[in-house]
Amino acid sequence: MELILFALPVLLLVLMFTSQRKRQRAAEQLQASLQPGQQIVTTSGMFARVVELDDAVVVLEPGPGQRVRWDRRAIGGVVAEGARGYLPEAGPNAGARALPDAGFEGPTSGNDAAGPTSTAPGEPGHPARPGDQNPRS
User: Fold this and answer.
1) Number of domains in the chain
2) Closest of 108, 111, 32, 47 to residue 79, by C-alpha
3) Greatest CA span in the chain, whole angstroms?
4) What is the pLDDT along the chain (137 residues), one digit of tens a residue?
């Protein structure tokens, strides 16, 4: 009985250390296998493409023309082609999509060059929003 009470915690510690070592080896292999052009997901869930690598820093491109610097240890995994979150290779006109103009009123909508107008709720010219109610009615 005493042998079981001694062996059980020792066995539990051995299992904890071996699983930690496996996770550490997997993270080291991931870091060693990173290459520019790969699509990755960070530990916080951002999908991006690797642009540049350094010993401690990786430059990621989450979208066309956007570049951000991350700590290399924040790379959570490589996204396989065809997997959820994988973006197809960008063509020469990837960022040149036409924006729909339906419902877009432009930057001067509601404001003019003199600045925004201040109107109270219920006055003409005040934009109506859901939840706007006159508390005195």
Assistant:
1) 2
2) 47
3) 86
4) 788 888 899 999 999 999 999 999 998 898 888 999 999 999 999 999 999 999 899 999 999 999 999 999 999 999 888 778 777 775 444 444 433 434 434 344 444 444 445 555 555 655 555 555 555 55
What's the CA gap between 4 and 113, in Å, rounded? 82
Q: Hey, what are 24's tokens?
A: 């550490």
Which DSSP category does 98 fall into?
P
Residue 28 near residue 8 (C-beta atoms within 8 A): no
The boundaries of the domain holding residue 78 are 35-87
Indicate left, alpha or beta for 45 from its phi (over 0: left) and psi (-120 to 50: alpha): left
pTM, entire model: 0.54
Q: The domain spanning residue 65 has which CATH number?
A: 2.30.30
Residue with tokens 């539990």: 12
By residue count, the chain amounts to 137
Phi, psi for residue 134 in degrees, rounded to 5:
-80, 115
